[in-house]
Design a protein that fits this description.
This is MarR family transcriptional regulator. The protein contains eight helices and three strands, in the order αααβααββααα. It is mainly α.
Length: 141
């Protein structure tokens, strides 16, 4: 009976999936010396240099305190810098940070390739469906 509870519980199953994927992502991004979250934050800044912390939180679906903490770590590593524009904090990538861009994108592709090798095209389909479901559940809150 307990096994059925776990298999049919979205909370348990999603957390289990999260733990498995976190381990895979950590393995993929280890060569950068960054956490997967930090690497994805850098990817967002590569896409839009001068992005606000608020926008980063929205794109990455992270709490403001988490975004601040990750940015502080990346600033300390010399990969990002913060510039104030009035009351708005804008995040920019440094030359040192730009030097990591290709490696970070390679790590992202390695991660996708790894789970795609296991799941086939179902990995992309599952990802898109989970994104939709997450949006639906956030609207309920």
């Amino acid at each position: 009976m307990l096994e059925i509870y776990f298999k049919e519980c979205l909370y348990f199953t999603a957390n289990r999936l999260g733990r498995v994927l976190t381990k895979m992502a950590e393995d993929a991004f280890i060569v950068t010396g960054l956490s997967p979250t930090a690497a994805f934050l850098l990817m967002a800044v590569y896409e839009k240099d001068g992005i606000s912390q608020k926008e980063l939180g929205q794109y990455l679906h992270l709490q403001p305190s988490t975004v601040t903490r990750v940015i502080e770590k990346l600033v300390a590593k010399g990969l990002l810098y913060n510039r104030m524009d009035g009351r708005l904090s804008l995040i920019h990538v440094t030359e040192k940070g730009k030097a990591l861009e290709e490696v970070i994108h390679q790590c992202w592709h390695q991660l996708r390739d790894r789970y795609s090798a296991i799941m086939g095209e179902g990995g992309d389909e599952l990802s898109l469906r989970l994104y939709e479901v997450s949006n639906q559940l956030e609207e309920v809150e």
